[in-house]
């Protein structure tokens, strides 16, 4: 059996920080896992280096479930984004190793393909509605079947999801958190106008998505959902903070606009009530922050009981290792919805060579054994860590709000 002989974390910053776990076995087979937690990267690297890796050495790399249970139960202190991202990285690397030894792409080990490819959505954004719709048109012309729309808000210097760069979006932009000012009132006026303009320009054959990014109260979210209904959004994402899952009952009472939640979740307990009360339509939890493929499959199976579909997070702060692992998950689950695909920069892709390819609005994980992604350590070493924080948001009167 392939024993784990060594493991290490690799921190690199090709334009933004990534933490990668690399595990080596007695067979000489290696596997990689993403351990990136935007703005808190070194916490996960330390959790792995100082607390997890010593416990891995000598274990049977094939025992993915037992190692998962050992790291989850054995820590005593359970859950949380740092812990579950570290466990996720181990899980991804062990599935990578298992696939390489079996000579099969991981999706074949997960039950095989349930679809020909994985529908993805791109990110159209702009300072104005016109700019955003123009970007969306470019995504449609590039073959995307689904596009997220995020525009600036008149009167606000910055709005979530609006990038200075036309194609790439990276919110962790400063050595200390950038302070932004938010107005829900101004935002709630412009979002329906954005969707009206987009439907007018693009028609009905493209899925349009939107990320509220945790910023509204439940009743405001109910109002926004109702205002968007004429434009049939594919989903309204993160309408309100989800620590209290019961908050979503009020939104559900007021709108049929589909709801997606979960990119900040790290375990099934964060979404159990949302799913069993059918308060959401898509679960956004992803491989790197929700305990890896092993735990994410449990969440997807539970969601399937209630007709909730997957819609995994796929922002640039999730490395190509997560994107590769997510595609093996996406193509193999029965209740797949859509996969976010915020493309990485060429600089990042050079550090993480990968097999997945975009074609006709879809990604496919490829047929390489394992996850089909690796880390070029020499290239990674060229990009030293650089501290970066996500922004924070305050209201005009200084009250802390949700970014
Ligand atoms: O839906 C999304 O992609 C966003 O919510 C992310 O861009 C999110 O802001 C970042 O992943 C935070 O690091
Ligand atoms: Mg989001």
From TrEMBL:
GO MF: magnesium ion binding; mannonate dehydratase activity
Catalytic function, reaction form: D-mannonate = 2-dehydro-3-deoxy-D-gluconate + H2O
GO annotation terms (biological process): amino acid catabolic process; carbohydrate catabolic process
Cofactors, names only: Mg(2+)
Sequence ranges assigned to domain Mandelate racemase/muconate lactonizing enzyme C-terminal in this UniProt record: 129-258
Pathway stated in the Swiss-Prot or TrEMBL entry: Carbohydrate metabolism; pentose and glucuronate interconversion
EC number(s) reported in the record: 4.2.1.8
Domain of life: Bacteria
Xref: PROSITE patterns: MR_MLE_1 (PS00908), MR_MLE_2 (PS00909)
Keywords: Carbohydrate metabolism, Lyase, Magnesium, Metal-binding
Pfam family, one: MR_MLE_N
Cross-referenced SUPFAM superfamilies: Enolase C-terminal domain-like (SSF51604), Enolase N-terminal domain-like (SSF54826)
Biological role stated in the UniProt entry: Catalyzes the dehydration of D-mannonate. Has no detectable activity with a panel of 70 other acid sugars (in vitro).
Family note: Belongs to the mandelate racemase/muconate lactonizing enzyme family. GalD subfamily.
Protein name per its UniProtKB record: mannonate dehydratase
């Amino acid at each position: 059996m392939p024993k784990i002989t060594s493991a290490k974390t690799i921190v690199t910053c090709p334009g933004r920080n990534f933490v990668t776990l690399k595990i080596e076995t007695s067979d000489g087979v290696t596997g990689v896992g993403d351990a990136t937690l935007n703005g808190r990267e070194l916490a996960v690297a330390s959790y792995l280096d100082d607390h997890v890796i010593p416990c891995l050495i000598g274990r049977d790399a094939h025992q993915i479930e037992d190692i998962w249970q050992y790291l989850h139960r054995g820590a005593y202190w359970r859950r949380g984004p740092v812990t579950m991202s570290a466990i996720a990285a181990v899980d991804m690397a062990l599935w990578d190793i298992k696939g390489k030894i079996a000579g099969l792409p991981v999706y074949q080990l997960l039950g095989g393909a349930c679809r020909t490819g994985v529908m993805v959505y791109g990110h159209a954004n702009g300072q104005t509605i016109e700019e955003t719709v123009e970007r969306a048109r470019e995504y449609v012309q590039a073959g995307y079947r689904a596009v997220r729309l995020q525009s600036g808000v008149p009167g606000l210097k910055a709005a979530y999801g609006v990038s200075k760069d036309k194609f790439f979006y990276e919110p962790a932009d400063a050595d200390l958190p950038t302070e932004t000012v938010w107005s829900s009132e101004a935002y709630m006026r412009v979002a329906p106008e954005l969707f009206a303009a987009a439907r007018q320009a693009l028609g009905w054959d493209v899925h349009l998505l939107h990320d509220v990014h945790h910023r509204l109260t439940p009743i405001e979210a109910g109002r926004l959902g109702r205002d968007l209904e004429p434009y049939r959004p594919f989903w309204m994402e993160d309408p309100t903070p989800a620590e209290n899952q019961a908050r979503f009952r009020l939104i559900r009472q007021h709108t049929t606009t589909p709801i997606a939640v979960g990119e900040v979740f790290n375990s099934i307990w964060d979404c159990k009530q949302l799913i069993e009360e059918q308060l959401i339509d898509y679960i956004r939890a992803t491989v790197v922050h929700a305990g890896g493929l092993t735990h994410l499959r449990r969440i997807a199976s539970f969601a399937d009981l209630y007709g909730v579909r997957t819609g995994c997070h796929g922002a640039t702060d999730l490395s190509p290792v997560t994107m590769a692992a997510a595609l093996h998950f996406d193509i193999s689950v029965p209740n797949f919805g859509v996969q976010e695909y915020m493309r990485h920069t060429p600089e990042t892709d050079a550090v993480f060579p990968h097999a997945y390819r975009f074609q006709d609005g879809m990604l496919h994980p490829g047929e390489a054994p394992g996850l089909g992604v690796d880390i070029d350590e020499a290239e990674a070493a060229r990009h030293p860590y650089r501290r970066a924080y996500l922004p924070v948001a305050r209201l005009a009167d200084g009250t802390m709000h949700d970014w």
